[in-house]
């Protein structure tokens, strides 16, 4: 079962304080990310899973949705209520939502 949400659902969830995890590489994240997204590159996800809350939904984003699908599958098996964001950061930007540039996890 694919656990996927669209950009509009991410925007609603984020406005309500949802946790967003960005599984891209640091350079991609710094070039532009969803405000408040926590950077945990896909290749580090298994070792850092303890940083991800298990008591609420987690929204996983990448560039286009491929890496977030992989991450969501793994997180779900690890007991996390995770959802992949269809279209990823590219779709977020195309939809005109705010973007943060740089390494900080700003919440703007």
Topology:
Layout: E1 4-5, H1 7-15, E2 19-22, H2 26-31, E3 38-39, H3 45-48, E4 58-61, H4 66-77, E5 82-85, H5 88-94
Parallel strand pairs: 1-5, 2-3, 2-4, 4-5
Organism: Prauserella oleivorans
Domain Rhodanese: 14-101
Pfam families: Rhodanese (PF00581)
Low-confidence stretches: none
Helix count from the secondary structure assignment? 5
CATH class division:
Alpha Beta
If strands are numbered along the chain, what order do they take across the biggest sheet? Answer: 1-5-4-2-3
Helix percent reads: 25-40%
The name of the CATH topology is Oxidized Rhodanese, domain 1
Strand/helix succession? EHEHEHEHEH
Q: How many domains, as an integer? A: 1
Q: How would you portray this structure in words?
A:
- This protein is 35% helix and 15% strand.
- By secondary structure, it is of the alpha/beta class.
- It has a single domain (4-94), classed as Rhodanese-like domain (Oxidized Rhodanese, domain 1).
- The chain has a five-stranded parallel beta sheet with strand order 1-5-4-2-3.
- The model has no long low-confidence stretch (mean pLDDT 93).
- Residues 14-101 form the Rhodanese domain.
- This is Rhodanese-like domain-containing protein.
Describe the structure concisely for a colleague.
The chain has helices at residues 7-15, 26-31, 45-48, 66-77, 88-94, and strands at residues 4-5, 19-22, 38-39, 58-61, 82-85. It is built from five helices and five strands, in the order βαβαβαβαβα.
Task: Give structural attributes.
single chain, 108 residues, alpha/beta, Oxidized Rhodanese, domain 1, 5-stranded parallel beta sheet
């Amino acid at each position: 079962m694919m656990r996927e949400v669209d950009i509009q659902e991410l925007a609603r969830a984020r406005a309500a304080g949802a946790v967003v995890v960005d599984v891209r590489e640091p350079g991609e994240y710094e070039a532009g990310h969803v405000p408040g997204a926590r950077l945990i590159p896909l290749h580090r996800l298994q070792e850092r899973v303890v940083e991800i809350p298990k008591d609420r939904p987690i929204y996983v984003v990448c560039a286009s949705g491929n890496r977030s699908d992989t991450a969501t599958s793994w997180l779900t098996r690890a007991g996390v209520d995770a959802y992949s964001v269809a279209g990823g950061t590219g779709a977020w930007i195309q939809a005109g939502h705010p973007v943060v540039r740089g390494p900080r996890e700003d919440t703007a």
